[in-house]
Amino acid sequence: MPLSGPTTTVLKLGTAQTLAWASTYYLPAILAAPIARELGVSVATVFAAFSAGLVITGILGPRAGRAIDTLGGRPVLALSNLLFAVGLALLGLANGPLSLFAAWIVIGIGMSGGLYEAAFATLVRMYGRDSRSVITGITLLAGFASTVGWPLSTALEAWIGWRGTCFAWAGLHLLIALPLNLSLPKLAAVDAPEVDPSNDTRPEQQTVVPMKSAVLLALVFAITWFISTAMAAHLPMLLTTSGVSLGMAVTAGALIGPAQVAGRLLEFGVLRHMHPLLSARIASAMHPIGAVVLAIVGAPSAILFAIFHGAGNGILTIAKGTLPLVLFGPQGYGERQGLLMVPARLAQALAPWLFGLCVEQWGAGALWVSAAMGTVAMFALWMLSQSGTTAYKD
C-alpha cells in the first residue's frame, strides 16, 4: 500500500520544488545585474558566487542522498527550506564579494538536499520501483519554475528592489515550501548500506552492476547538465550569431520551457510504456539533431532547434531520476544518485564560462561543440545494456 496518495505527493512536492528552483537556480538570471551594480562588482562575479554554490551542491549531494536513504525525504527537504531561507536572507544583506559568496555557499548547501535529486530520492524511498510516474509528475510541475520565477522575481525587483526580492523568496520558503515538505509522510529510519556505484549488489537479485554502467551514466548526466546550463546561459547570443533576429531569439528561448513540459507529457503518455533507457536514447538525440539543423540551415530553423532542445532536455531530466532506479535498484538510491551527479554539478558550474568561451571564439560554430557532446551522451546511453537492469514496470 502506498505511504501517501501519489497525486497528493506530486502536488505537494512539485509545488515545493517549483519554489526551490525559482528562488535559487533561476534567481541570478534576474538579479545578477542589480546585485552587481549595487555591490560594485561585475556580473561575472555574481555568477562565480552562484557557481561556487553549485560546486558545494555537488560535493554534499551524496551525503544528502544518504540521509534520505536513512531517514526519508521529509527532514532533509524541510532542512533545505530553512537553509534556503537563511541563504536568501544573507544574500539580501550582502554588502560585498565575501558576503555574496557566503550567501551562495549556504544556498548551495540547501540545494544539495532540496532540488530534483533529493525529491527523486524521496519518491523512491516512498514508492520504490513504482516511482517513474510520480517522478514525471514532479518534473511536470517544477518545469514551470522559470515561467513562474522569472516574472515574479522581475516584478518584485521592480517593486521592492533585489534585496527585498531575496527576503520575499526567503519568506515563501518558510510560509509555503516548509509546511508542504513537513506534510510528507514521516518514514521509519533504516540503516542505509554503503554504496559503491561501480559494484552494487542488489539483495533481491544478487546482481552486480559493473563500473562501466556507473561511469557511462555519470558521463551522460555530466554532458546533459552541461548542455542544458550552457543553453540557458547563452542561447539568445548563440542564436543571434546564427543570423537570428533578437526578437526571434527571444521567442525561441521562450519556447524551451513549454517544449520541456511537452517532452515530459510525452514521457508521461507514450514513452512511459517504453523502457526508460530507450526513451533516454531518443531524447539524447534531439539536441544534436536540432543543433546540426540550426548550424546548417541557420535562422529559419531557430524555432525547431528550441523545440528539439527543450523536449529532449525535459525527458532527460526525468531520466536522471529513473535510470539509476532501473539500472541499480531502489536500495541506496539517494546516495548513489548523489555520487552519480557530482560530475554533473561540476559541469553545470563550469558550463556558462566554458561555453561562453566557445561562443566568443567561434560564434554559431559553438553549436558543433554542443552537438558533439550530445552525440557522445547518446552513444554512451546506447552502450548501456538493458539486459542488466532490474525488473521494469511502467
Automatic annotation (TrEMBL):
The keyword Membrane applies. InterPro entries: MFS, MFS_dom, MFS_Efflux_Transporters, MFS_trans_sf. The chain crosses the membrane at residues 41-64, 76-94, 100-122, 134-153, 159-178, 214-234, 246-266, 362-384. It is a multi-pass membrane protein. GO terms for cellular component: plasma membrane. It is found in: Cell membrane. Keywords: Cell membrane, Membrane, Transmembrane, Transmembrane helix. PANTHER family: CHLORAMPHENICOL EFFLUX PUMP RV0191, PURINE EFFLUX PUMP PBUE. This is MFS transporter.
